[in-house]
């Protein structure tokens, strides 16, 4: 039987691809040789991020700075730590199941004493972990907003925080628009709410921390109608960094409010694949149109913004 003739392989070698692969392998070897195993920082961030969303340098690279503002990843909730000078200010503490996580984060950030613990409003995704935090640290002052009597919560979450304050021998400070606190070389101003509301979201304390020429605006879950009242009152809401209201819900962050703030950077505290579909597409589109960077805890993990009072830099854990 005659042997079958083998077909001659006529495939051409794709030399441009081979050359490109050789260059990449050489670059990898060079970086590994001179930088050990930690070569990833030499490469671009390959994680997929939605358009308009940015990723910053690693938290491992955060330098000492006069001010550090931490946006702690607590899932679907808010928790922020402001470190200014030797002072530590905690704003919100996530859900009830996040208390231990917040405590661990604060200890990792070197916190031993909290000069201020601020609850923007009494929803569990903002103050749920606050009693655990108060129990774990020396706390000098606890601040919350003035809630109309007919909507004061009777939830276990709210009463747990009040009990923690009482057990520490502290007196709850009730904040109002116009209040101001000098701390850590900077200033915390209470901007709102400027009216009384029957919705707990709109009772959210709106605060601005200013250090030099750089400022940070925290709005809790304030919604568009309260934003409008704030603007109508003539309050200066301009800020360098804006924590987007209500986890990016389309009920907050009106076009007028965004324009008035004029932020150079946005942060959204939001849980991955949350049932509310936050941040809503409408809000994401608005932020993208501004052309300013957007950071999200569901995508970027913990986020730290540092400033010397003149410039700011953003670092992320993802």
Form type? globular
Low-confidence parts: 1-12, 28-47
What number is the mean pLDDT? 88
Structural class: alpha/beta
Query: What order do the strands of the largest sheet run in, or round the barrel if closed?
Result: 8-7-5-3-2-1-16-17
For the sheet with most strands, the description reads:
8 strands, mixed
- Radius of gyration, taken over Cα atoms and rounded to an integer in Å: 24 Å
Number of strand segments? 17
As a percent range, the share of strand residues is 15-25%
Summarize the structure in words.
This protein has 318 residues and is α/β, with parallel strands linked by helices. 26% of the residues lie in helices and 23% in strands. It has nine helices and 17 strands. The chain has helices at residues 15-35, 99-108, 124-127, 130-136, 156-167, 224-232, 255-261, 281-290, 297-300, and strands at 67-71, 80-84, 87-91, 113-114, 116-119, 138-139, 142-145, 173-175, 180-183, 186-192, 206-211, 214-218, 241-243, 265-268, 294-296, 303-307, 312-316. The strands form three sheets. It has an eight-stranded mixed beta sheet with strand order 8-7-5-3-2-1-16-17, with no helix packed on it. A seven-stranded mixed beta sheet has the order 9-10-11-12-13-14-15. Strands 4-6 form a two-stranded parallel sheet. Helix 8 (281-290) links the parallel strand 14 (265-268) and strand 15 (294-296). Helix 2 (99-108) crosses helix 4 and helix 4 packs parallel to helix 5. The longest helix has 21 residues, at 15-35.
List the keywords.
eight-stranded mixed sheet; seven-stranded mixed sheet; 26% helix; alpha/beta
């Amino acid at each position: 039987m005659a042997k079958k003739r083998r077909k001659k392989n006529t495939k051409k070698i794709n030399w441009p691809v081979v050359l490109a692969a050789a260059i990449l392998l050489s670059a990898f070897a060079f970086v590994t040789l001179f930088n050990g195993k930690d070569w990833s920082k030499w490469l671009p961030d390959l994680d997929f991020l939605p358009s308009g969303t940015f990723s910053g340098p690693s938290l491992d690279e955060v330098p000492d700075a006069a001010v550090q503002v931490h946006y702690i990843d607590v899932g679907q909730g808010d928790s922020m730590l402001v470190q200014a000078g030797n002072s530590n200010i905690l704003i919100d503490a996530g859900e009830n199941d996040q208390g231990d996580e917040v405590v661990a984060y604060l200890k990792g950030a070197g916190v031993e004493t909290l000069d201020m613990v601020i609850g923007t409003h009494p929803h569990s995704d903002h103050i749920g972990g606050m009693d655990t935090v108060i129990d774990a640290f020396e706390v000098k002052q606890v601040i919350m907003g003035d809630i109309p009597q007919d909507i004061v919560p009777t939830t276990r979450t709210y009463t747990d925080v009040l009990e923690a304050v009482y057990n520490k021998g502290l007196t709850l400070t009730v904040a109002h628009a116009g209040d101001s606190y000098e701390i850590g070389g900077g200033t915390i101003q209470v901007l709102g709410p400027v009216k009384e509301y029957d919705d707990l979201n709109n009772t959210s304390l709106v605060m601005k921390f200013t250090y030099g020429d750089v400022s940070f605006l925290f709005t809790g879950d304030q919604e568009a109608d309260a934003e409008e009242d704030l603007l109508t009152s003539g309050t200066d809401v301009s800020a360098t960094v804006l924590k987007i209201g209500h986890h990016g819900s389309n009920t907050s962050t009106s076009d007028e409010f965004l324009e008035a703030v004029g932020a150079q950077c946005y942060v959204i505290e939001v849980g991955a694949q949350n049932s509310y579909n936050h941040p809503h597409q409408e809000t994401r589109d608005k932020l993208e149109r501004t052309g300013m960077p957007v950071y999200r805890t569901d995508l970027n993990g913990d986020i730290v913004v540092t400033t010397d009072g003149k410039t700011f830099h953003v670092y992320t854990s993802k």
